[in-house]
Amino acid sequence: SLASRQSFWAELNVAHLDHQNVVRVIAASTCSPAGQDSLGTIIMEYVGNSTLHHVIYGTNWVTAKRKDDGLGCGRESLSLAQSLHYSCNIAAGLVFLHSQLIVHLDLKPANIFITEQNICKIGDF
Which positions are catalytic? Predict the structure, then answer.
């Protein structure tokens, strides 16, 4: 589909970028096995499976402690320090991307990955 092709090429557009707050593309290929309808393959750095969405909605390892949020849902509130840390990571990644004339068209918590070292990385272009 057109959307799939656009997404594939958008990911490749950032392949040359190297910044600690942007998921790094390691390799890519437009070759696919015979008989498969595939655009290609992109190999990206491993960032784990934690996202800011998981942290906000309390569905991940990052949210170890739980407390009642007043709405009947137990989830941990982000501390001010943690919120600032994540915000600075995201801002640094965006400043870098914009300096390279790259605009992320789908920036949302699910596309902010949090590594095991607690570093935010922007991905899923």
Answer: 106
pLDDT, averaged in runs of 10, over the chain (125 residues) = 68 81 86 66 88 86 47 65 97 96 92 96 90
Domain limits for position 56: 2-122
What proportions of the chain, in percent to the nearest 5, are helix, strand and coil? 35, 15, 50
Whole-angstrom CA distances from 64 to 50, 55, 78 are: 13, 10, 11
The pLDDT assigned to 34 comes to 57
Structurally, the chain folds into a number of domains equal to: 1
The DSSP result for 63-88, as a single string, is --S--B-SSS-B-PPPPHHHHHHHHH
